[in-house]
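User: Can you predict the 3D structure of Fructose-1,6-bisphosphatase class 1? Sequence below.
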Amino acid sequence: MSRVTLSRYLIEQTRSNNTPADLRFLIEVVARACKAISHQVSKGALGGVLGSMETENVQGEVQKKLDVLSNEILLEANEWGGTLAGMASEEMDKPYQIPGRYPKGAYLLLFDPLDGSSNIDVNVSVGTIFSVLRCPGNCFSQNDSLGDEAFLQPGTKQVAAGYAIYGPQTMLMLTLGDGVMGFTLDRELGSFVLTHDNIRVPHSTAEFAINMSNQRHWDEPVKRYVSELLAGEEGPLGKNYNMRWIASMVADVHRILTRGGLFMYPWDAREPEKPGKLRLMYEANPMSFIIEQAGGAATDGKQRILEVEPTSLHQRVPVFLGSPEEVERVTGYHKG
Ligand code: AHG
Ligand code: MN
Ligand code: MN
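Assistant: Sure. Here are the predicted C-alpha cells for Fructose-1,6-bisphosphatase class 1:
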C-alpha cells in the first residue's frame, strides 16, 4: 500500500479542492517547523532546552526556554516564503513584520508555539497550535507595518488550522475546512504520513476534562453541571463519567478527537476581569475549527467560539468543546 504523505495530500487537495498553491506551501513550511520543534523537544535535558528563561511574555507568564525556541523556529521557517503578510504569536506582544528583504503574501499565521509549557519539564505531551487567516484587503502590498486589526477576524474566517502534538508519537492534525486529517511523523522518512483519515468526534461521551482545583471559583452553571457529572448514575444525568486533565490543551483535545470527550476551561473568579485562561486567536479558534470539522461543537458557554468577534490579539475566552451532546448541555445551563 502506498503511503500518503502530507505533501502528497496537500498536492491532491490543490488539484481536487482548489486549495491554492501558496496555502499548500504555507502548511508545508509550518509542518517543517513543527518537525524541528519536535526534534528540540525530544532532546530534553540532553539538549539543554529544559527550564525557564528570565523573561515573561505579554501575558505576564514566565517563558520556558522551549517557548522562546519554538517561537523562533516558527518565525524563521515562515518569514521568507512569500506566503505571509504577517504573523502573531502568544509569545509576542505585537504582530511580527515580514522583513523587507522578503516577499509578502496573502495570509496571516497565528500560533501558540508551545502549548502546555508547564508539562515540558515533566516529559508530558506538549504541542504547537496554528491558525491561518487571509489578510484583508490589499494589506500585503503596503509598506507600512501590519497592525493588530488585520488579525481581528472571527474564527469562521480561518482557511486552515491545525496542531502538532509532541507525545509518544509526533502527530500533525490539520483542517483545510473539509474535515480533519491526522498525520504521524515517520522519523525514518522524515515525513508526516496520513494515518487518521477524516476524524470524527463521537456525538456522546462519558469523559470530561476540567481543572477541578478551580471549582470554588467557577460560576453557577459550571458548578451545577460538574456536580451533575460527578453524581454519576445516581444523579440527574443517569450515567457515570470519567475524568482526565493533562493541562496541555493539545493533548486533551487530541484525546477528544480520538475517543470523544468534553474539554472545559471556563471563566473563573481568580482574575474576574479576564474572561477565561485560553486565548481566542491562537488556541480556542483553531481548536474549535478542528473540533467542528470533526463533527464536534465548541462554545464559550453562550455562543459558538468561531463567531466571537475579536477585539484584541491576546484576548481570552471561556472554552467548552468536544462531543456535541455535552457541549450543548453545558451551554444550555448558561442560558438558564
Ligand atoms: P500555554 O502553555 O500555551 O500557556 O497553555 C497552557 C494552557 C492549556 O494548554 C491548558 O489546557 C491550560 O493552560 C492548563 O491550565 P492549568 O494549569 O490552569 O490547568
Ligand atoms: Mn497554550
Ligand atoms: Mn504556549
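The chain has a mean pLDDT of 95. The radius of gyration is 19 Å.
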